[in-house]
Amino acid sequence: MVAACPKLETVDLSHCVRVGDREAAALAGFAGLKELKLDKCLKVTDVGLAKVAMGCPGLERLGIKWCLEISNVGIELLVKKCWELKDLDISYLKVTDKSLQFIPTLGKLQVLSMVGCYFVTDEGLRYLNNGSNSLKVDLVSGAQVNAKHEASE
After folding, report:
1. Helix (H, G, I), strand (E, B) or coil at 27
2. pLDDT value at residue 129
3. Distance of alpha carbon 119 from its chain centroid, rounded?
4. Which top CATH class is 10-152?
5. How large is the average pLDDT for residues 74-95?
6. Stated pTM of the model
7. Can you tell me the distance from the alpha carbon of 108 to that of 135, in angstroms, rounded to the nearest whole number?
8. Are 59 and 80 in contact (CB under 8 A)?
9. Helix, strand, or coil here: 7?
């Protein structure tokens, strides 16, 4: 498929509950991928996310909402490899404050959605306060907070 679609930039496999690490590894062959949605792909783990991160360093938008097997390990590697991320949705993942330590290093990140991240505390949210007013953090669906923790609409 990579040979047939070498300029593919956007893939949405959301709600394909049978998509897992093998399929994520196949997507890693699309080095020019800019936008990837894997929301509720229940079989994608840190391993699959790592393959995507290493193969698609130019990703700008990534949705991994409800990928329950992705943890702090996957987020840390993603942040180290995908510096172009502008929009990241990690809603309902089992991530903790540790993941939020790495996210501020994404200098181009504009939107971080983390609805239902129940293991994140106020301490973790402090890591996001890196002085950037351009980062919008969605903590509750429909509400946003900027990196300085001031309510915005």
Report:
1. helix
2. 79
3. 16
4. alpha beta
5. 96
6. 0.89
7. 9
8. no
9. coil
Q: Which two tokens stand for residue 21?
A: 């690490």
pLDDT band at 27 (very low <50, low <70, confident <90, very high): very high
C-alpha 48/C-alpha 35 separation (Å) is 16
pLDDT tens by residue, 96-151: 999 999 999 999 999 999 999 999 998 888 888 765 557 888 887 544 455 544 43
Q: What is the DSSP string of 28-88?
A: TT-TT--EEE-TT-TB-BHHHHHHHHHH-TT--EEE-TT-TB--HHHHHHHHHH-TT-SEE
Q: Which residues of 10-40 are buried (b: 16+ CB within 10 A; e: fewer)?
A: ebebbebeebbbebbbbbbbbeebbebbbbb
pLDDT score at 82: 97
Which sequence spans correspond to the domains of the chain?
10-152
Nearest to 104 by CA among 143, 77, 62, 132: 132
Query: Quick one: pLDDT at residue 44?
Result: 98
CA 6 vs. chain centroid, Å, equals: 23
Calculate the alpha carbon distances from 116 to 6, 65, 70, 80, 152 in Å.
36, 10, 14, 24, 19
